[in-house]
Structure formats: C-alpha cells, structure tokens
Amino acid sequence: MVYNIFRGLGIALVTPFKENGSVDYDALLRLVDYQLENGADFFCILATTGETPTLTADERQRIKDLVVEKVQARVPILMGCGGYNTAAVVEQLRTGDFKGVDGILSVCPYYNKPSQEGLYQHFRAIAQATELPVVLYNVPGRTGVNMRAETTVRLARDCQNIVAIKEASGNLEQVDEIIKNKPPRFEVISGDDALTFPMVSCGAVGVISVIGNALPREFSKMIRLQMRGEYDPARKIHHRFTDLFSLLFVDGNPAGVKAMLHEMGFIENVLRLPLVPTRITTRQRMSEILRELGV
C-alpha cells in the first residue's frame, strides 16, 4: 500500500528569470538551499507557481534535473504533471523522465469543465499510468470546475496510489467532509497559505506554500507548532502574516511572491507573459510589512 510522504511545509517553487527573460538557474539553486536550510519539508516543482506553461521542454527538464541534484533526496520532490487532455497526461507519465521524483501533482482538467464522473475517470486513468504516488490538485478558481468531496473520497478509495489532495477550493466545509470520510492512508494538504492554519486544525497534514518561498522558517514553525497541538503560538504566527497573504495574490500568483523575493535580494522581479509584475503600490506595502517583520 502507498502512503503520503508530502507533509509539513511544501514549497511551491518559483522559477526565477533574469532581466533578459531567460531562466536564472543560479538563483533557483540559491533559493532551494535557502529553503532547505530554513525548514522546507518537501518541494513542489514545475507547477502553477513555477510558471510552467511558459517554460520550454528543455527548461523544464533542466529545472527538474538541477533541483533533484541539489536536494540529494534530503526531502521528497513532488512534480506537476497534469492537463485537460487525459491521453496526453497518460503518455507523459508513461514516457517522461521522473528519475529522482517522489510523486506527481496533477491538477483538475481546466477549461473544458468535465463532470464529476469525467474527473473520476481522468484521475483513475492517471493513477493507472504510473507507479508513483499521485497528489490530486483541486483549484476551482483556476480550472473552472470544483471536484466535490465525494469524488475525491471515491478516488482515494479506488486508487491505491492516489495518496493525497492539495485542496485549494477555499471551502472549509468541503475540506472537513473529505477528512471525515477519507480512508486512513489518504491525506489532505492545504493549497492556500491563508487557510493553512484552519485546515491543519481540521486535520490537514501540511501545505504546498507560495509564501514559503520567501519565509520558510516562519511558516514551517507555525505548522510544526500546530502538529504538536500548540495552537496559541501557531495562531499568533498566522495572524502576523494576514496582510501578506492578501498582498501575495492581489496582483496574481507568482507576481506577489516574486516581488517579495526581489525585495529580499534573491531574484529579479521578472515574470513571463502573460503574467506581469505587481503594482508599485503593492510592492511598497509588501516592503513595509517585511520591515515590520524584521525580514
């Protein structure tokens, strides 16, 4: 039986770019080092926050290889592998290079809005195409379709290598229903930094985090405190970040966290179209809060 190993603070890793728009591989490796040294429990690479749709096949391969080499199996690596064409995702799983990868994150099909039965059949086909652990990703704000709790639980029961879901529906009632009805080996991971505290309180086992790119030590401390049942000090950390949570996403993701990382001196504030950097006012407010936090 396959169990979930993606717990605690997962980093939804950004892809740094140079001023000329090329991938800044040196900055990427510095970020990975920084996050490993400050509490990252696993990495999620080549997913939404990594601007993966804008990367070439060669860039994706090099990022994967460099991160695997840098991590040296010290923490698990989860890699994005999803889409709205089931056959294409299955083919990628059967022929792609997943050496050094410990599991795949597969997003709900976007744009074509499948039914709940369509979602079930899509993920069942993905699970059958790989021996790797599969983490489902439900993010209706991006995909246009919500995978309901009963569909998630059905997949968890029927597919032994579907081990977890990254839940970013924003619906705590749905999260609670999954946690209440899931099989014991299946787990829930927060897909929303702002809701991580309440979701872990309900029984989620961690987060795939955007803010963790910049503030891994502080955010991982909150999760560790919660896991030990120390909710009051964890709540204080959660409340310290409330303003940052909203600023991170007001101009889109990963524009917010890239601006934050730029303010901290890690990367250039560059995104690939159709994404653009945050507004100056957002950046200024973010800088003020970072100073208040002593970062």
Labels describing this entry:
single chain; 295 residues; alpha/beta; eight-stranded parallel beta sheet; 13 helices; 8 strands; globular
What does this entry show, briefly?
This protein has 295 residues and is an alpha/beta fold. It has helices spanning 25-37, 57-71, 86-95, 116-128, 140-143, 149-158, 172-181, 196-202, 216-227, 231-240, 242-250, 255-263, 280-292; strands at residues 8-12, 42-45, 77-80, 103-107, 134-138, 162-167, 187-190, 206-209.
Description:
The chain has helices spanning 25-37, 57-71, 86-95, 116-128, 140-143, 149-158, 172-181, 196-202, 216-227, 231-240, 242-250, 255-263, 280-292, and strands at residues 8-12, 42-45, 77-80, 103-107, 134-138, 162-167, 187-190, 206-209. Helix 3 (86-95) runs parallel beside helix 4, helix 9 (216-227) runs antiparallel to helix 10 and helix 11 packs antiparallel against helix 13 (280-292). It is built from 13 helices and eight strands. An eight-stranded parallel sheet has the order 7-6-5-4-3-2-1-8. The radius of gyration is 18 Å and the shape is globular. Strand 6 (162-167), helix 7 and strand 7 form a beta-alpha-beta unit. By secondary structure, the protein is an alpha/beta fold.
Residue windows where pLDDT falls under 50 for at least 5 positions: none
Order of helices and strands: EHEHEHEHEHHEHEHEHHHHH
Roughly what fraction of the amino acids lie in strands?
5-15%
Distance between the termini: 43 Å
Main sheet summary: 8 strands, parallel
Question: Largest beta sheet: what is the strand line-up?
Answer: 7-6-5-4-3-2-1-8
Summed up, the helix count is 13
**Net shape:** globular
Q: Fraction of residues in helices?
A: 40-55%
Strand element count: 8
Radius of gyration: 18 Å
Mean pLDDT: 97
Structural class: alpha/beta
